[in-house]
Amino acid sequence: MTTGPGRRSSTFTRLLRHGFTDPSAAEQLLDLDDLTSVRSDPVLLEALGATADPDLALRGLVRLVEAEEEGERQVLLDTLITAKPLRDRLLGVLGASEALGDHLARHPRDWQALVTYEAVDLHPGVAEFERGLADAVDPDSLRVAYRRCMLTLAARDVCGTTGIAQTAAELADLATATLRAALAIARTAAPEDAAQCRLAVVAMGKCGGHELNYVSDVDVIFVGEARDGVEEHKAMQAATRLAAHMMRICSETTAEGTIWEVDANLRPEGRNGPLVRTLSSHLAYYQRWAKTWEFQALLKARAVAGDPELGQEYVDAVSPLVWQAADRENFVPDVQKMRRRVVDNIPVDRIERELKLGPGGLRDVEFAVQLLQLVHGRSDASLHSGTTLEALRALAEGGYVGRADAAQLDEAYRFLRSMEHRIQLYRLRRTHLVPEDEADLRRLGRSLGMRTDPVAELNKAWRRHASVVRRLHEKIFYRPLLDAVAQLAPGESRLSTKAAAIRLEALGYADPAAALRHLEALSSGVSRKAAIQRTLLPVLLGWFADSADPDAGLLGFRKVSDALGKTPWYLRLLRDEGAAAENLARVLSAGRLAPDLLMRAPEAVAILGDPEGLTPRTREHLEQEVLAAVGRAGDAESAIAVVRGVRRRELFRTTAADLIGSYGTEDSPAEQDHGALVDRVGSAVTDLNAATIAGALRAAVREQWGDTLPTRFAVIGMGRFGGHELSYGSDADVLFVHRPREGVSDEEASRAANAVVGEMRRLLQLPTADPPLLIDADLRPEGKTGPMVRTLKSYGAYYRRWSLVWESQALLRAEHMAGDEELGRDFIELVNPLRYPAEGLGDDAVREIRRLKARMESERMPRGADPTLHAKLGRGGLSDVEWTVQLTQMQHGWAEPGLRTTRTREALAAACAAELIPAEDVQMLDEAWVLATRVRNAVMLVRGRSGDTFPSDPREMAAVGRYLGYEPGHVGDMLDDYRRITRRARAVVEERFYGAVV
Fold first, then answer.
1. How many CB atoms lie within 10 A of CB 628?
2. Rounded to whole angstroms, how far apart are CA atoms 364 and 340?
């Protein structure tokens, strides 16, 4: 086959045409003496070219021929050329599996297992595989026989003689025969143990479901009973030794490799429980202790080896428990937890290559099918199948899954399983990762029949099928619910009303009957609105079910749709099924505040569809909008109505951003920096309230004086308002200050200032359905008995002569918020020496601050409140942290510029930077303050009214937990974490505030 320099042989060209990627190496192999008789036969090249990897197939063939005894080599080659079935099978396996090529090189006579082509050979069952393993007497011979059986099975697979479902079933049957052979070897090795006990092996997982992979752990459960006259504990010890030996025979690596791991961790108590239990012990555990996922696993239980009667007794005994699982008390929260895709443990660089656990992967299909079986199988025995595709077909035939959805899932599942099988077959290794190497992808694509551009075709098909699964994974739970109420296709199987209610209840809906009424109202009819909502509702219902209050989410959606259903832009927003729809679902089902705001102005839903819609507006932008609206209004009350509308809209924007950031979405994970969330809310609500007060001030002035008030007037923010730390339900603590304009008498200026304050308060307190903005001026000099507004001079005189230490402390939060900016700056300059006294506080002042704090703790805590769970006044709560920070500011603010801030977290960071408080203590104080603030925000978001303690209603408590990042069923963990974090913070307060360390 040699040619002149620079020229390629005709064989080289033919090899390229037949799919070889390394024609030069292939030419050299074909030139070997052992292939002399077949190298020029076109049948060989055609057959090699039809394999998944012609290069691999040729290398495997050469190794096999070289391994054969000389007298047998020609027999092999002659049979290869003359017998097409053998040729296709042998070369097909060699081109798809390097591991089986290795086996044939070690055991060259095994190629003859591929020669027979009888009818029984096409569809072998457990009996045929048992015959194939019959001569195995030890672990090594069992491995060889197992590989020989797998060789014939893989040959049928790669040649297309069997489909994916049949291949998976055959692999399960081969595993069954192997478990029986391994148990027989173990019994032969310990006949005295075998004589003492009955032992049954029950397959679980994919083996139990008759859908095993090429390389997969074989999940089992062992059931044992004593034989007559044998004490139970001795029988269980004997059964345990037999079971453990059987597992080692299959799992251990010998000179012939391994078969697969036998995994018994699905047994009661997992790896901590006994390996073998009696039937009564199994039942006692399942009836008392088992969790929902354990019943889900039992769906696939199947007796496969050992004592057949005992195994069947076990299956018959646990089966009723499986179908009663949906009646258990914790079924709904368990389902909610199980429905969430667990991908956190998959490395980021691998998640996109995960066939099984990644988004749109095999587990999504399997879980959805199993969950629907658990929900509906208690009343429909046709769903009692352990095989995914059979169960999916039964669900479709019963109307539990839409036929079109079931067909798409079936096709996608078969494709993904085929990919998984071919990936594992190559080296017979347990993996669910799609390879990255180009050669591996090419072989994989060709093995699935893609020949034009295998890599591109494979990636396209894989992404398409994964996308189908990802899209349908949630929809299949809900689309039949719509069919049940809309009834648009007469004659098709559909859920009964009772079955629909059962499914809704299982998915977390507390009032299934009301939910069905809402679904009927939303989806019935032939209007464009109903059609779009039928498309969107299956997705929305899943998002609602992922919340603490699905019923509220669905009711809210109905209300919004009733209000906006005829608005073209709203229908377009829904049709998108993108971020806007998911954001709307999160907002509507997370509590009362955000939906209440939205119901008063449904058009604000457009915010959720704008990429920048959740970004808070700046104070400058808000003030500009508010003041312009006031300028256009006819009178003060009309003006304040517009201002309130802006506030309502912006409060909705803030709450929506907070909820979506806390919950996360499918495309955007939950915000992990909780401090940043708190800061955003505090700043946004503060800026919004400052703009609202500025609008009220402008409206009050214009009503009586036009554009110019006889006195300069400013509003100073105090407390959380001045600290930019407002929560949703906080009052606005303020001081009012004025300075007469030139030529205006003090009396006239005072009357005007007081009139403005009175009008502002009246306007902001007008009856309305909007959240109120209450102005609290009780921190003014002389408190409630003092004048509501003073001149700057009057403030100066009071503070010089009468100011108490608590007033200086309160002024730490003072910041100009509205009105005359120059006057605001002058006020801040006036109070700076008070709040940051030169050389710090004297001992008497420090003692007075501590005394006031101790008195507040004892007198202001509400009666009956748990001091360990009160966010404001409780142990390690807001008050503890803030007083500790403020004492530090008053002691050291004169010398440390960073401490001269109204914001608690900024002051904490500055104290750490100045080494006034150790970093560890700062971290504990900051964590507690952020958590307590989030609790207050959560209570307002969930209940629609402010509160400083966790709610007592279980559903409201669960909603607070979800906002704080706790999964359903983990409310106890939330309270424990809150107590732990605040307890640590209180220890710091005891040292830093009540001790001498300041």
1. 12
2. 10
Residue 664: Cβ within 10 Å count = 14
Tokens of residue 560, six digits: 């919004």
Q: 649 and 604 in contact (C-beta within 8 Å)? A: yes
- Give the three-class secondary structure for 461: helix
Does residue 839 contact residue 892 with C-beta atoms inside 8 Å? Answer: no
Q: Write the DSSP assignment of 643-699 as a string of letters.
A: HHHHHHHHHHHHHHHHHHHHH--SSSPPPS-HHHHHHHHHHHHHHHHHHHHHHHHHH
CA 60 to chain centre: 45
Cβ atoms within 10 Å, residue 534: 19
Can you spell out the DSSP letters for 475-496?
HHHHHHHHHHHH--STTS----
So what's the pLDDT on residue 625? 96
pLDDT of residue 9: 64
Query: 611: which residues sit within 8 A by CB, 6+ positions away?
Result: none
Task: Report pLDDT digits (tens) over 700-724.
Answer: 999 889 889 999 999 999 999 999 9
pLDDT in tens, 502-558: 888 888 899 999 999 999 888 888 777 788 788 788 878 888 888 888 999 999 999
Judge whether 263 and 216 are in contact, CB under 8 Å: no
DSSP run (H or E) holding 262: strand 262-263
Q: Give, rounded to a whole angstrom, the gap between the first and last alpha carbons of the chain.
A: 93
Per-chain mean pLDDT for the chain = 91
338 falls in which pLDDT band (50, 70, 90)? low
Angle between helices 636-663 and 619-632 (to 10 degrees): 150
Min mean pLDDT across 22-26, 493-497, 842-846 is at 493-497
Give CA–CA dist 179/141, Å, rounded. 14
- The pLDDT assigned to 997 comes to 47
965 — pLDDT class (breaks 50, 70, 90): very high
**Which tokens in the block code for residue 585?**
């679902």
Give the tokens for residue 963.
């906002």
Q: Is 715 exposed, middle or buried (0-12, 13-18, 19+ CB in 10 A)?
A: buried
Which whole-number Å values give the CA distances from 233 to 193, 285, 493, 685, in the listed order? 12, 18, 53, 68
| pTM of full prediction above 0.85 | no
Cβ neighbours of residue 764 under 8 Å, at least 6 residues apart?
640, 692, 693, 696, 772, 773, 774, 775
Alpha helices by DSSP H, 255-353 = 279-288, 292-298, 308-323, 331-339, 348-351
With a CB cutoff of 8 Å and minimum separation 6, the contacts of 109 are 68, 72
What phi, psi does 489 have (nearest 5°)? Answer: -125, 85
**pLDDT per position as a tens digit, 113-156:** 998 765 556 779 999 999 999 999 999 999 999 999 999 999 99
pLDDT above 70 for 109: yes
What the block records as the tokens of 701 is 């002035």
Q: Which tokens is 571 given? A: 């229908």
Phi, psi at 224, each rounded to 5°: -130, 155
pLDDT score recorded for residue 947: 92
Q: Taking residues 400-409, what's their average pLDDT?
A: 89
Tokens representing residue 775 in the block: 């102005």
Q: What residues contact 173, with CB distance under 8 A and at least 6 apart?
A: 124, 125, 126, 129, 210
Judge whether residue 282 has pLDDT over 80.
yes
Length of the chain: 998
CA-CA distance, 191 to 57, in Å (whole number)? Answer: 46
639, 695 contact by CB (below 8 A) = yes
